[in-house]
Amino acid sequence: MAGLRVADAAAPARSLRPAVAAATPSGLYLLTPDWDDTSRLLAVSAAALAAGVRWLQYRHKGAAPALRRQQARALRELTRDHDASLVINDDLALALQVQADGVHLGRDDGSVAAARAAWPQGAIGVSCYDDYARAEAAWHEGAGHVAFGAVFASRVKPGAVRAPLALLERARAAGRPAVAIGGIDAGNIAQVAAAGAAAAALISAVFDAPDPAAAAAELIQRWNSAQSGRTGGP
């Protein structure tokens, strides 16, 4: 995929405002699969949003630019309807074009500092894999949050480097928001919450479920229960 095209995005960034105030992803953070079928993508996303998901990341690395624009615009409208936040994976220009709430940057997706300069109010996340030094650099350059993973074996990326949950604990101790990603499902999401993650990012546990709405609701319930136990809440 091409780089961020920060120069092209910088001018409109001053006038755009996200539909939901920029913040840090929290709780269940749902990432979309590489589906070309837009109707199916929207139907499952709508079910998850209705079940309580409040952060959705559009991620379709293999799509043609026209399809990416179409799907991103449709998801922007859908998330607005549910008072949810939309993040675009890898593509700052597209995030600004559809007036998303944030962008998520990987290793080869351009400068975090340049993205922050182009979009001061955006929710900017950065993939940090198993590298805490990379996370510190990202925070310094203006990232609002980072992502560590794969924290568990991932079906989507079976060859992904494994990131220990201790990275989440270290970020929490430093007062820095970190998202966990990779192999998260109903059987282990509580471990992620207990380790101090701000959010649990996942795809298959909802999009591949027989009943996506029920799967999302169960994941949210397990996350909330684990969070309550960690903080001593009711």
Please give the largest β-sheet. 8 strands, parallel, barrel
Q: In terms of per-residue confidence, which ranges show pLDDT below 50 for 5 or more consecutive residues?
A: 1-21
For the secondary structure, the number of strands is 8
Apparent shape: globular
- How many whole angstroms does the radius of gyration measure? 16 Å
How confident is the prediction overall: mean pLDDT? 90
Strand order across the largest sheet: 1-2-3-4-5-6-7-8
What percentage of amino acids are in beta strands? 15-25%
Number of helices: 10
Helix-strand sequence:
HEHEHEHEHEHEHEHEHH
Pairing-aware structural class of the strands and helices? alpha/beta
Distance between the termini: 46 Å
Helicity level: 40-55%
Would you mind describing this structure in some detail?
- There is one protein chain.
- The protein is built from ten helices and eight strands.
- With 234 residues, it is an alpha/beta fold.
- Strands 1-2-3-4-5-6-7-8 form an eight-stranded parallel beta barrel, surrounded by six helices.
- 45% of the residues are buried.
Structural descriptors:
alpha/beta, 42% helix, disordered N terminus
What is shown here, in short?
The protein has 234 residues and is α/β, with parallel strands linked by helices.
Question: How would the blueprint of this fold be written?
Answer:
Elements: H1 6-13, E1 27-31, H2 38-50, E2 55-58, H3 65-81, E3 85-89, H4 92-97, E4 102-105, H5 112-118, E5 123-129, H6 132-141, E6 145-148, H7 166-173, E7 178-181, H8 189-194, E8 199-202, H9 204-207, H10 212-231
Parallel strand pairs: 1-2, 1-8, 2-3, 3-4, 4-5, 5-6, 6-7, 7-8
